[in-house]
Every structure is written in structure tokens, then in C-alpha cells.
Design a protein that fits this description.
5-stranded mixed β-sheet, Ubiquitin-like (UB roll), about 100 residues, alpha+beta
Length: about 100
């Protein structure tokens, strides 16, 4: 099982993630506070996270719709993604994400 590290402020939480789940599902299953207002449909932006640069090329590409939504967020940047749109795989072992 891959390990995912969630950082929010000074709190860092390492969790074991099941391949095939989204980062949003992983966070919620492990008690990490990450809100998903649209229940993972990728249309609200509430599960916005920052991906550490070393993992950007290891996750699946964002859809045009996700990119449009991320560009509309006031705190979005080049490392921004929606946690509901990233599916966990073994290749993401050690992935660190920051919750704004």
C-alpha cells in the first residue's frame, strides 16, 4: 500500500492508501480534514490541494474542466490539483500534498 503524506499547517499525517481510491477518499477514510463539497465530482474546488513538484509528472493529467476550475481559485498555482481527481497508485508512494 502506498503511503500518502497530508500536510495542513504544522500538522503532517502519514496514511496508508488503497490503490484505486482518490486522494479525497483516502483523506476522509484516515481522518484528515479535507472537504469535498461536490462529493468528488470535480466541480466545486473545495478539495483543492498542492502537489509536491517531484510528483507532478507521476499523477494523471488534469482534465480541461479541472484546469479551468483551478485557474479560477484565488490561491491556485502550478502545483494545484483537486484531490477528488487523483487516483492513488503504487507509483504515488511517498506523495506529499499540502492542504491550503
Amino acid at each position: 500500500m502506498p503511503t500518502i503524506i497530508f500536510k495542513k499547517g504544522d500538522i503532517e499525517t502519514k496514511v496508508e492508501a488503497a490503490s484505486g481510491e482518490t486522494l479525497l477518499e483516502t483523506a476522509n477514510a484516515s481522518g484528515v480534514k479535507l472537504f469535498g463539497g461536490c462529493s468528488g465530482a470535480g466541480v466545486c474546488g473545495t478539495c483543492h490541494v498542492y502537489i509536491y513538484p517531484s510528483f507532478i509528472d507521476k499523477i494523471q493529467k488534469a482534465s480541461d474542466e479541472e484546469i479551468d476550475l483551478l485557474e479560477s481559485l484565488p490561491n491556485g498555482n502550478i502545483n494545484s490539483r483537486l484531490a477528488c481527481q487523483i487516483v492513488v497508485s503504487e507509483e504515488l508512494d511517498g506523495l506529499t500534498i499540502t492542504i491550503p
